Amino acid sequence: MTVLTDINTASSNRTVLAIARYWQLLRVLIERNLKVRYRGSFLGIYWSLINPLISTGLYTAIFGATFASYYGNSIVNYVLAAFTGLMVMTFFSSSTSQALPSVVNNGALLNKIYLPVSIFPVSMIGSNVFQLCMGTLPLLIIITVITSKSIVNVLALFVPCLGLVFASMGVSFLVSALYVFFRDLSYFYELVIFVLGISTPIFYPSAIVPNQVKPFLQLNPLAPIIESIRQIALSGNPPDWQMAAPAVLSGLICLTVGWTCFRSWRSQFMDLL
Asked: Nearest-CA neighbor of 88 among 230, 207, 191, 244?
């Protein structure tokens, strides 16, 4: 009995040490990613806020008057809806695109020392989560407070945001693994991001989508996330958990599929790096 207890204790200690080491490596890589990305930049991480703001202004100038009727005949409501959609799409596209070459770009390092391969796409997601928390998320929280005047809505806002992180991480695992085998994937993925952006109700209301197309729109993992964030942040009503649940579920499905593929193909990486 004592021997079994000692074995279990030793196993638990190894697990704790492995988690601590993984976290330390992750923190170092996130810091490195941010320093390299914004070295010499005047605004730094706040570009992650400026980009969706500029895009929102552009979409409002072109489509605001046309689609305002779907948002209570209010240009302001359209601006807020477009901003939340662009926030989600910007985070997803930038984090997954940056994670795509992360394993290959660190192939020389992996050939020299042992590191958990998954740390590289995860660090890219972590860098973008930090940007999100320092850039667009505080503005979204302020909007939520103004529209709902409820701390419950502010806290509920993190539920679909968690789904967004899960979805981005799952796709990052998948594309970073595929890129090891197919080095021209980056060109194809640009097209995927474009199609995903067009098929996501970012600058247009989902109400205008034809009924024949809506079933395909429901396959888009970002659509329920955007709709849930808009409901919580912009409607002024209490959180609708029936909308928030699919947002998290879609993220978990992406994460499960991506991690399963990454883990299955990981043993073949070193022969190709």
From this structure: 230
